[in-house]
Specification:
The protein is α/β, with parallel strands linked by helices. The chain has one domain: ComB-like (putative 2-phosphosulfolactate phosphatase). Helices cover about 40% and strands about 25% of the residues. The chain contains 11 helices and 10 strands. A hairpin with a 2-residue loop joins strand 4 and strand 5.
Length: about 230
């Protein structure tokens, strides 16, 4: 198994084999959380306009996402796991979610045109994702850190790449060193300083938990949509 570590927009475009598109803060922490809260279906959407058009046809759809980190007016939730957690499973049970974000979702949509298979990656999904990869044994695994808006490196995604690579048997990983760099970086401090309500301080606490779920998530093109499928491990 050849492991290729890459990042940002060009990394998503260059992904080959099985691509793991990593967005720790916060898209692909929200995605598995939504499934654990009882969501039946999850679709990745490129633009708010696409989401609104689909909701016009089905008012029961739940819209989750952001543009440049800012919640989208008219969406039900921003890109916040703590907001989703606070709402409770009764709201989500059996429903369908459309998710639009500026990093993870966009990266996954790009990688679908290049890679054989696209998985969603985060610390929460790391262990189950690696179990799936080890069972599948692809020739190439592309680990892609999406960063901030596919343009700026974010340490939480970079370290998650290293963690996944380590679990796959390639290289070392020190979680204390990872936390030291992540927690004191401006990306995390944006949440901890409470300067904007849409960056709640609870989100990093949720996003930095490792190996939470017993399923992996795969993005699959279906007609005019991209659906996220749960893969039981």
């Amino acid at each position: 198994m050849k492991i290729v570590c890459d990042r940002l927009y060009n990394g998503a475009l260059a992904a080959r084999g099985v691509a793991v598109i990593i967005d720790v803060f916060r898209a692909f922490t929200c995605a598995p959380l939504l499934f654990s809260m009882g969501v039946e279906k999850l679709f990745l959407i490129a633009t708010p306009e696409q989401a609104f058009a689909l909701k016009e046809k089905d008012r029961d759809l739940i819209l989750v996402g952001e543009v440049s980190g800012i919640p989208i007016k008219g969406f039900d939730f921003g890109n916040s796991p703590s907001e989703i957690l606070r709402k409770g499973p009764e709201f989500f049970e059996g429903r369908t979610v459309l998710q639009r974000t500026s990093s993870g979702v966009q990266g996954a949509l790009l990688a679908l045109d290049a890679a054989d298979e696209v998985l969603l990656g985060s610390y929460a999904l790391a262990g189950s994702t690696v179990k799936y990869l080890l069972s599948k044994k692809p020739e190439i695994v592309s680990l892609v850190a999406m960063g901030w808006e596919l343009k700026e490196i974010a340490p939480e995604d970079e370290w998650c790449v290293r963690y996944l690579s380590h679990l796959l048997g390639n290289g070392s990983y020190d979680h204390n060193e990872a936390l030291s760099e992540i927690v004191f970086h401006k990306t995390t401090q944006r949440f901890l300083r409470r300067e904007e309500t849409y960056f709640p301080p609870e989100d990093p606490l949720i996003c930095l938990q490792r190996d939470v779920y017993d399923f992996a998530l795969r993005a699959v093109k279906q007609a005019d949509r991209v659906e996220v499928h749960k893969i039981s491990i």
